[in-house]
Design brief:
The protein is α/β, with parallel strands linked by helices. Helix content is 48%, strand content 13%. The protein is built from eleven helices and nine strands. The strands form two sheets. It has a five-stranded parallel β-sheet, with helices on both faces. A four-stranded mixed β-sheet has the order 7-6-9-8.
Length: 314
């Protein structure tokens, strides 16, 4: 009897192998019990299905990652408003991940970094010219470092040179959830509540020159946190329109099997820490971690690169 292989078996097997390269870097909302095996690729059916579709066509796997918006305005956290070693290392990690995929799947992969600083810059207190400079430097880093598997996408690619406030209003009006719907979700959905609390905490930490009381600041930041989530959701919807087939990555922790795959860019003591909220610290053994600038300064010495502060070393 002639045995045949199901036509989808090979693409799905290759898709699982590709997804297995991402799993060690999964940024999730929980940890498996000690001794428990790593979650298998099959626990991520949405991502596995999309990756398999690319493999079936012999096309490069496309990932979208809303991230790298701008530096935190808090000088106790970052070295300035331009990318530094934290971004350099994170971009290198993403490009290396794509190169590793290419080793097992020759068409390879590509990550579109969806830089979202302008989407909510007015809510987080970062000037639009700083956001433009940050995104331009990201593109320069990618070009100079020959990170050929990466590209940057931002509001300029969709709405050109319209005023920034006009761009924000356009995205919000067409894609953002209503405030009432979002408030209801925060009350009933644990991951959304965790996101809301995390963003509120960041806004409190990053707000400078607030003249009111601490409780007034917290109320203000809770209000702005809803706006940040609304705009982030709107940006996600726009990305889905522009890149409808891509596998959606996220820098926020995501449950196993969620529509978005949370990915950790660099080691950090807090699951919410990113290169744009911190400084890079090189340990004595050569490894890197992300910590607030104030703490990094206590632990190591500042290193400059190309005439700018870059990172700290023990």
């Amino acid at each position: 009897m002639l045995l045949t292989t199901a036509p989808d078996t090979l693409p799905r097997t290759t898709g699982a192998e590709i997804l297995n390269l991402l799993l060690p870097h999964h940024r999730t909302t929980g940890r498996p019990p000690t001794g428990q095996a790593r979650v298998p690729a099959e626990a991520f059916p949405r991502q596995l299905r999309r990756i398999t579709d690319f493999v079936r066509e012999g096309a490069p796997v496309a990932f979208t990652l809303p991230a790298f918006p701008c530096k935190s305005p808090n000088p106790a956290k970052t070295l300035g408003h331009l990318p530094d070693m934290g971004e350099r290392l994170s971009l290198g990690f993403l490009d290396t991940l794509c190169r590793d995929i290419e080793k097992i799947y020759p068409p390879g992969a590509h990550v579109v970094i969806c830089s979202d600083g302008h989407v909510f810059g007015d809510l987080i207190g970062v000037p639009d010219d700083h956001i433009d400079a940050y995104a331009d430097e990201l593109r320069a880093l990618i070009r100079q470092s020959d990170l050929s598997h990466l590209s940057v996408f931002d509001l300029r690619d969709v709405l050109g040179d319209l005023p920034h406030d006009t761009k924000r209003a356009h995205v919000h009006d067409r894609h953002a959830p209503t405030l009432e719907a979002l408030r209801a979700e925060v009350r009933t959905d644990a991951p959304t509540l965790a996101l809301y609390r995390g963003i509120t905490r960041f806004l409190v930490e990053d707000t400078a020159e607030f003249t009111g009381t601490r409780s007034a600041l917290q109320r203000e930041c809770r209000r702005r946190a809803y706006g940040v989530i609304q705009r982030s959701r709107a940006w996600g919807a726009l990305i889905a329109d522009q890149h409808p087939r891509a596998v959606r990555l996220s820098i926020h922790p995501q449950p196993v099997g969620a529509p978005k795959f949370g990915i950790r860019l660099l080691d950090a003591p807090d699951a919410w820490t990113t290169p744009w909220h911190s400084a890079a610290l090189r340990e004595l053994d050569g490894t890197w971690t992300l910590v607030p600038r104030a703490r990094a300064r206590r632990l190591g010495r500042l290193v400059h690169r190309d005439g700018r502060p870059s990172h700290f070393e023990r």
